[in-house]
């Protein structure tokens, strides 16, 4: 019972802290802030998904052929994500407008979904968290 | 921000912290806290992103 109380307090504390941080300052450029946050979230999703799959491969639980196809999908995602991130960097420097970002991010989103679906299927149906 | 969305976010972050460890948790929180990122923030994010091959080392 004590564990649940401590866990609840920790959880509420985190919600409070995150809430304070998010509401502390309104962005001057909501597009830039939103785009940066979504690319960061995508990178974390890729990191935990691909990192976990590589660990399974290192443990000998994934066949070479299966791993190589997963790596191809991960490479495809990584190239597209990097393109979107470089475009956003150029936007932050005022070199390009918002227009091209959605297209590049859309391609990266599709590639990330393809990679996650494949890894989920080949790792026994473990659902990625995010 | 809507309080239900905030609660959902908090629960998601707690799940990340418990299941994936503090590194993934702090990366997400750091991104959420950044407002109007500068070019340097974005370059750092690009530099920190790991190529698929680097996970094998």
Helix content of chain A: over 70%
How would you characterize the largest beta sheet of chain A?
Answer: none
What is the count of distinct domains of chain B?
1
| Distance between the amino and carboxyl termini of chain A | 29 Å
Helix-strand category of chain B: mainly alpha
Q: Strand tally of chain B, please?
A: 0
What are the low-pLDDT stretches of chain B, counting only 5+ consecutive residues below 50? none
For the sheet with most strands of chain B, the description reads:
none
Note the gap between the termini of chain B. 41 Å
Word description of this protein:
The complex is a heterodimer of chains A (130) and B (57). Chain A has 130 residues and is mainly α. Chain A has one domain. The longest helix of chain A is centred in the middle third of the chain and has 29 residues. Chain B has one domain. Chain B is built from three helices and no strands. The termini of chain B are far apart. In chain B, helix 1 runs antiparallel to helix 2. The mean pLDDT of chain B is 83. Chain B is flat. The relative contact order of chain B is 0.08. By secondary structure, chain B is an all-alpha fold.
Outline of this structure?
Chain A is mainly α and 130 residues long. Chain A has helices at residues 2-23, 30-58, 64-92, 99-122.
Write the SSE topology.
The complex is a heterodimer of chains A (130) and B (57).
Chain A: H1 2-23, H2 30-58, H3 64-92, H4 99-122
Helix pairs in contact in A: 2-3, 2-4, 3-4
Chain B: H1 3-20, H2 22-33, H3 39-48
Helix pairs in contact in B: 1-2
Keyword list:
heterodimer, A: 130 residues, mainly alpha, flat, B: 57 residues, 3 helices, 70% helix
């Amino acid at each position: 019972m004590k564990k649940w109380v401590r866990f609840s307090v920790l959880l509420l504390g985190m919600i409070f802290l995150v809430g304070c941080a998010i509401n502390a300052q309104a962005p001057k450029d909501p597009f830039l802030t939103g785009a940066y946050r979504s690319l960061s979230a995508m990178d974390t999703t890729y990191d935990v998904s691909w990192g976990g799959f590589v660990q399974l491969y290192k443990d000998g639980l994934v066949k070479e052929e299966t791993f190589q196809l997963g790596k191809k999908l991960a490479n495809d995602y990584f190239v597209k994500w990097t393109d979107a991130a470089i475009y956003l960097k150029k936007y932050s420097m005022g070199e390009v407008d918002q227009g091209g970002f959605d297209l590049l991010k859309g391609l990266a989103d599709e590639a990330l979904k393809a990679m996650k679906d494949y890894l989920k299927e080949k790792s026994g149906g473990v659902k990625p968290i995010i | 921000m809507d309080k239900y969305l905030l609660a959902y976010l908090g629960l998601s972050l707690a799940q990340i912290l418990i299941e994936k460890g503090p590194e993934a948790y702090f990366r997400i929180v750091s991104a959420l806290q950044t407002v109007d990122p500068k070019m340097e923030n974005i370059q750092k994010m690009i530099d920190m992103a790991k190529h698929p091959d680097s996970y094998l080392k």
